[in-house]
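Subject: Predicted fold for TolC family protein, 420 residues

User T.R. writes:
Posting the sequence so we have a shared reference for the thread.
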Amino acid sequence: MKRLLLILIGFVPLLASAQRVLTLDECYSLAEKNYPLAKQTALLEEKTQTEIKILEKEKLPKLDLNAQATYQSDVIEFPLQIPNSTVEPPNKDQYRATIDANQLIYNGGKIAANTRLKTAELATQQQQVAVNLYTLKSRINQNYFSVLLFQEQAKLLLSKMEELDARLKEVNTGVKYGAVLPASEQVLKAEQLKLEQQISQVNFDRKKALNNLASLLSQNLDTATTLTNPDILVAPEIESQRPELELFDLQETQLETSKEVISKSNFPKLLGFAQAGYGNPGLNMLDNSFQDFYLVGVKLNWNIFDWGKTKEKKQAVDISKEIVTSEKETFLLNNQMQQEEAENDIDKYEEMLQKDAEIIALREMVLQATTSQLQHGVITSSEYITELNNLYEAKIDEQLHKIQLSLSKANYKVIKGGFN
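User M.O. replies:
I've generated the structure tokens; pasting them so everyone works from the same file.
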């Protein structure tokens, strides 16, 4: 009995004064917030903003510092002597230091197109994170309803323990006054020990499932945490809202934006440039002295013929879009099959629960009669225990089917995309 009291005391925090009540929706929210993968959304945003800043810097002037010293084997010389001229040939050792500035004036909007592409890539990458996080919901469902099942089984076992304890007190009284054989008391005590063992096992299994759930949520969940059985509405008429569908659309948008970048790559590029320098010789090659100099101008670069590369790149993008379309169609097909399987499971467990109610009603009537027979010494404790076990096995089956029904509904909503 001391061991039984310890077990019951261990369940008091769980059943009477739970520190925390957790719902399925709260588990989803906690996972989306705390799971390590969730950090990628903000990191991707930061990364893209940095890349866009780098692209914008293409509009700023570029400055280059250049310096060189050379010695050459030959220089320009005049073949004829000019009268009254003191022109000397350039020195074979020459020196030059310059600062070159280039300023982009026009590039056909290529920077803006690349910025839009980066934004489209960010949306796609963040949606991929959302898809990966959404897949956690199925894992959460499995662990959540496992904990819930063990939680409800513990309640049934404790209820069974109370029933068994009441019968044991009655038998103890009968043994005391010689109305019942001692063997009946021993049978009930053995069953009581077996029940204590079952309660202990359920307790450990629940703790294990709760730890797995806690890992997914990045939360500390102790055994005082109580889960609620959600009331989930299944609506087959609602269209699928899976995040993968939005991901496919964003991938197509990204590919279409990349075609714009490809087109912009063939636009003319106009630059302004300036150079300031100091060297020997300077711009005047006939003056063998150190001079400062400068020059300014504009230059145009335009690749007017690329051998069809732009066209082929766009064709490759179009093929990629077709691949995305085929992946979307495949996903929708598989998703529809999963929905039908989930709907079948829901119908199955609903029908089983109807039978469970009938079975329990009959088992309760049988146990009531058996209890009366035990109290009057008509049957043995073993016969009573058989019927008690039959009743609680039926109740546990009913509870199992209730949890399985809720799990099937939760899985259906995840498959359908109803938990976005």
